[in-house]
Design brief:
This protein is α+β, with helices and mostly antiparallel strands and about 260 residues long. About 25% of the residues lie in helices and about 30% in strands. Strands 1, 2, 3, 4, 7, 8 and 9 form a seven-stranded mixed β-sheet that branches. The longest helix has 15 residues. The chain is globular and about 60 Å long.
Length: about 260
Amino acid sequence: MRPLLEFRQGGPPVEARPAATVVLLREAPTGFEVFCVERSGKSSFLAGALVFPGGRLDPEDHAWAQAAGLPADAAYALAAIRETLEEAGILLADRETPALHADEIEAHRAAVLAGASLRNLLDEAGLVPAVQALVPFSRWVTPEAEAKRFDTAFFIAKAPADQPGAHDRTETVASLWATPATLLERWQNDEIAMVPPTHATLEWLAARSTLGAALEDAARLAHDPIRPERRTEDGVPVLHLPGTHPYAPRYVLTSGRFSPRR
């Protein structure tokens, strides 16, 4: 398995590529659950980590936003919808009738993974991407010290009730629904691996008792980029999170993983 984080050995920082991810939520007896996927141990980025579905923007995402008469930054939401279908098997799209069927969703997913245009597939099926269902949540920029960097827009969305989701068995090798508190406990017990943006998001979610409260509170958040800075304090690697945000101000490398410190 590749290292979870890979740092450069000198030289100028690589460019942070635009990306988008979706934090999918659903109602549960104990409040609400979040959907996560486990990245393949062979992945070139975040190998073996538990993450939210997402990926980088494609040129077509920008063309799609322009053709739909949407603001330029809507390309992030469209990319998030595409990546959610690819990695989670969940399609955030609207149609009056008939309702989306599981076989239809899986057929769209297989076609997109094979290189088809999601924009064209939705047009042919009379579907409209549910851009309005995505609530902007946060924006994380990979530290300059890392070998691969992304400028990632995080969205929160309520998952369609009849779409349980499933990993793609290629880029992602497992998937699950669980409460934020359960995932944090499993991380604390070294059962799963995750990086600071995932951990910070789950901590924020764990402080909300209902799905509705999470969506309402997310809509009030500022979206200034969070740019963690890698430092060394007393010989220990630290990720310092400057700026105004509701997360821990820094993450300290202890026992091979970055843990929050307040």
